[in-house]
C-alpha cells in the first residue's frame, strides 16, 4: 500500500498471520509460508525466519510442529506487529545494499540515506539449496549480491549501488583465477554501476536485526570437536606495547602467547594487533570454527559493524580482519568483562613491559604455605 508516508504492508495480510493458530498439518504450513511470501519485501531475513517451516515442508510425508517451529512462529508474529515503513527512492540517487549470510539463507536490504538516516526500500531473502549451502562464506556473500541484482534489476539499472561490506567481496569478484561461478557472476554484475564501500554503523532501529554480516552460522551450532576458542587482549604502557593470546583447542589444550610489539601502538591498536595475530595463529594451527573473546568494546562493536571506524588505522585493521574471517568456516566475536579476560590481560601486560623480544621460558611455582618461620605466624 502506497501512502503519503511511504510503502506500507497491507494490514489485512499482517492480521491474517497474527490471527493464525499454530498449524496442525502440512497444508496449513504451506498456507503460512505463502502468507509470509506476500509480506517478504517488508520482513528482514524472511528466509531465515521461515526456515523451521520450510524444513517441515521438505519432510513432506511427516508433520511435526516442535518447539523450534512454535518459537519461530511467535517471533514472526511479534515482528509483524511493527513492520518497517518502506521508502520510494528518488530518480538516479545512489542506493546502498547490506548483505547478510547464514548457514541456510542469504538476506539483503536495499536502502537510501537521507540527512544521516537510513531508510529501507526493499528486503529480500533466499533459502539456500544443498549445493549453495556448501559454498564458502565469501561465495555466499557473492551469491547474495547476484540474487539481489537479479531480483531488484530495475533498481540496479536506474541507480548507482553502493555495497556496504567489510569483506573482500570486490577483490574476490575481480580475481582472474577465481572459481568459474564467481567469474560468471562478476561478468553479470559488470553491467551495473556498483561500488564497494566500508560498512558503517546501521543506525535505523528497523535495521538493527540486519547487522550480522558474515556470521555464517553461530559457533554454538558447530560440534564440540570442531570448536576452537581464542582470547585476546592488547596493552600499551610507557615501556611499550604487547599482545596476549590464548588459543584453546577442541581437546581443551591452551596455547598461550605473550607477544612484544616492536613498535609503539595505542591501546586500541594493541587490541587490534592482538586480534589479528590471534586469528592468524588460530588459522595456522588448523582452526575452522573460531569463537573469539575480547574485553574491548570498541574492537568487538567495530568488527560486528555496530560502531563505525573513522580512523584510518582502524579501517585498515578491519580490512585485515575481514580478509582473515574468510579463512574460517565460522567466525564469531563476543565481548566479555575484563575480569573474565584476566589470563590474556596478564600476558599482554607482561609482553608490553619486556625490554627485549628474546624468547624465554618463565617457570611458575606454587607455594602452598609460608616456609619462613616469622611469616607463618602472621
UniProtKB/TrEMBL annotation:
Pfam families: RT_RNaseH_2 (PF17919), RVT_3 (PF13456). Residues 224-353 form the RNase H type-1 domain. CDD domains: RNase_HI_like. It comes from the Eukaryota. PROSITE patterns: RNASE_H_1. Gene3D superfamilies: 3.30.70.270, Ribonuclease H-like superfamily/Ribonuclease H. This is Retrovirus-related Pol polyprotein from transposon opus. It comes from Sesamum latifolium.
